[in-house]
Structure formats: structure tokens, C-alpha cells
Amino acid sequence: MARTFHHLTLRYIFDRLVEKSYRRTHPNTPWLAPAAIDFLTGYLQASDDMLEFGSGRSTLWFARRVHHVSSVEHNPEWYTKISGKISDFSITGIFYFYSNYSENLSYSLF
Question: Which of 13, 73, 85, 93 has the fewest CB atoms within 10 Å of its CB?
């Protein structure tokens, strides 16, 4: 099957460049839409506890805004990388653990 590149329109390329620019100028924000970040900034409270599946910038960002973050990571290499960041920044209030939950999930709704 041949790969197509119909999605590579000028608009698509422009949008990707805007996204790359935003990520470069906001290196400490989660990988979320800017509107979602704005909403969460006003919505989250210092007394909140939260659960996160998948870690990264968001883990560190949330930990600075809420009381406690429990974060589950399924990728062992990424877990090691983010564990180092948590230690480097001396961030408290994070329960961070590795679980290959993708192998343990039941995909049945019933």
C-alpha cells in the first residue's frame, strides 16, 4: 500500500509550525492545547488530588498546582527519565510508579 501525503497542505504545515513554536516557547507546560492549560490553571486547586495515566511535562506541571498527583507510566524508559526529572526538581506530592497496565487491561465493557 502506497503512502499518501494529501494532508500536507499549506494550512497543515502552518499549523504544525505554530504548534512547534508554542512548544519551544512554553517548555514547562503540559502537552495540552493552550486553551486547556488556561482552563486548568484557573480550575485546579492546591487542595486537589489527581490520578494521571501517562507521565511527562504534565506530571511536573500538575504537581506544582495540586496537593497530590498519582501518576502511572507504562514505558520503562520514560519512567526512568521522568523519575530523574522529579528528583532533579525536588518535587514532592507525587506518587509515581511503573506498571505495564496495557498488558493487564480488559477491553471488555461488560
Answer: 13
